[in-house]
Amino acid sequence: MAASSVVRGEDAFKKVFKFYKRKSPPPDFSDVTDFSKGLPSDKIVPAVLDLSAVSDSEAARAGLQPVKSWRAFGLQGYPGFIFISNPFLRGSQPFWIRQCLKTYPQKPNVCNLDMHMSPSDTQDIWGQSVHGLSSSPSGKREPKTLLERLRWVTLGYHYNWDTKTYSANHHTPLPADLHLLSVQITAACGFPGFSAQAGILNYYRHDSSLGIHVDESELDHSRPLLSFSFGQSAIFLLGGVRREDPPTAMYMHSGDVMVMSGQSRLFYHAVPRIIPALEMEGHRMALFSQDSTLGGVLSEEDRLLCTRYIQSSRLNVTVRQVLGPGQRFPETPSPPQKTDASQAGGVPGQTSQRRKEEEESSL
Ligand code: SIN
Which of 17, 139, 173, 341 registers the highest number of CB atoms within 10 A of its CB? Predict the structure, then answer.
């Protein structure tokens, strides 16, 4: 059976999600759209980009190829959805991978480990993981490093997983490099003036998934949502405004960028499965070449750790504009956020659950 045999009807999305999540026997992947193959079909159409919005040198500052070289596509039936098949310059992905693993988890950013550890214990997740990740396996069952236990990080306006809201009183600066990257992608896609105000990083192991959801907590839905993927590949499902709409399955490979705007901005989506890049013909993860000088050359230690980590993991960064121009958060009080273990979510224990498992269990 192929996923396309699931017809519109009661929770068709869930049926397709379960289809692709199944471990044994493995599902038939023949319906999965692969934009890296780049062949426009009756379903895949070229996306029109604004070639003058970003100069080649500006693009290179964010590690991107000139916009004229990007392979950008739309999907019939998904207005506002744009898929850019790895627009990064060769050798620039390691910079972004290192940012996601070493820099962005640092304070004042918030991560799942803060829910049950003190800020001083989670201050240097990378430093505390170096030894465990770089030593050769001893054959014994080693405790997981903090980096291996990292599941999410929030940036900018910190998303509160319990209340599913952002608030004015829990905000720290969004990293300037991620802001620059986001502004360039959105400008080229026809959204000048995008302001990257919140980021959510998800860290996927080989058996992780992300449940069916809509990103609707942002107050301005006219602004696009951006998604960057690095490391192992994944199957991404994009549905419609109702769970009855059967979703389209597509591969997300390392370096791929998605822009969800217009009607697609509020479509259901999910990640049912991580696919080892080695199983993907043509995606052999030749990531750690040093051709690009973005952010300087990676140290040997950084290279080794990033390579080790990424060999079994996937990173996804979503960037959102929360407030429209001149818009403010409503006056309704949200509880003050503290900088201790109750930060970004209230009760430790409840909030330490990952959104992935949390949403999964309700399926
Ligand atoms: C998300 O929808 O929040 C992330 C999707 C992904 O990991 O590709």
Answer: 17
- Answer whether 32's CB lies under 8 Å from 235's CB: yes
- Compute CA distances 278 → 61, 208, 254, 281, 312, whole Å: 30, 17, 12, 7, 10
pLDDT tens per residue, range 55-86? 999 999 999 999 999 999 999 999 999 999 99
Q: Is 191 exposed, middle or buried (0-12, 13-18, 19+ CB in 10 A)?
A: buried
Nearest CA to ligand 1 atom 8: 316
Is residue 178 within a helix (H) or strand (E), and if so which, with residue range? helix 176-188
Q: What is the pTM of this model?
A: 0.90
pLDDT in tens, 142-177: 788 999 999 999 999 999 999 999 999 999 999 999
**For the domain bounded by 3-359, which CATH number is listed?**
2.60.120.590
| Any atom of ligand 1 within 6 Å of the Cβ of 210 | yes
Give the number of the atom of ligand 1 that is nearest the alpha carbon of residue 229: 8
Please report, for residues 227, 253, 270, 359, the alpha-carbon distance to residue 286 in angstroms, rounded to integers and kept in the order given.
Answer: 21, 12, 27, 33
Low-confidence ranges of the chain (pLDDT < 70): 40, 137-141, 278-293, 333-363
Q: State which of 152, 153, 202, 228 you would mutate to test the pocket of ligand 1, scoring each by most atoms of that ligand within 8 A of its C-beta.
A: 202
Within 23-175, residue ranges assigned H as helices are: 56-61, 93-98, 125-134, 146-149
Question: What are the pLDDT digits (tens) for 80-116?
Answer: 999 999 999 988 999 999 999 999 999 999 999 999 9
Tell whether ligand 1 has an atom less than 6 A from the beta carbon of residue 321. Answer: no
CA 241 and chain centroid, separation: 21
Q: Which residue's alpha carbon is at the smallest distance from atom 7 of ligand 1?
A: 316
Pocket test for ligand 1, best of 227, 233, 252, 313 (most atoms within 8 A of CB): 227
Return the domain boundaries, the chain.
3-359
